[in-house]
Design a protein that fits this description.
It is a single chain. By secondary structure, the protein is mainly α. It has one domain. This is propanoyl-CoA C-acyltransferase. It comes from Strombidium inclinatum.
């Protein structure tokens, strides 16, 4: 028997099931090493390739990476903050879903996109003047 009732998940937040806390912890460590303030990462990065296995996971990850405050991801999407002309361009490659989510190739595809962006060789996807990129 399978169920998706909250009681089946225990008393902890289901945010941990999608890796929210581990992404947040990793982001804080990376930002500390690079002088980026958590919660204001969008002000310091030009390109972000994040793991968007599901549309909702992308919203959760904006917050876990500190691109915006908790509970504000949807507002920033509505304001076009995470696309060309916004604060930071997220998934200029189209993201994993656009590639068919190629499980083992996902990470290398994200790294390639960041590299192409920083080299200025991302063709029509190029984020002009990209100097800092993050792959998650």
């Amino acid at each position: 028997m399978a169920t998706d009732l909250p009681e089946a998940m225990g008393t902890e937040s289901s945010m941990n099931l999608v890796g929210y806390e581990s992404v947040k912890l990793a982001a804080k460590k990376a930002y500390k090493n690079t002088g980026i303030e958590f919660g204001k990462a969008a002000d310091h990065l030009d390109v972000v390739e994040l793991h968007d296995c599901f549309s909702t996971n992308e919203l959760i990850t904006y917050e876990a990476l500190g691109l915006c405050k908790e509970g504000e991801a949807a507002k920033h999407v509505d304001n076009d903050d995470f696309t060309y002309g916004g604060k930071v361009v997220v998934n200029p490659s189209g993201g994993l879903i656009s590639k068919g989510h190629p499980i083992s190739a996902s990470g290398i595809a994200q790294c390639n996109e960041c590299c192409w962006q920083l080299r200025g060789s991302a063709d029509k996807r190029q984020v002009q003047g990209a100097k800092k990129a993050l792959s998650q």
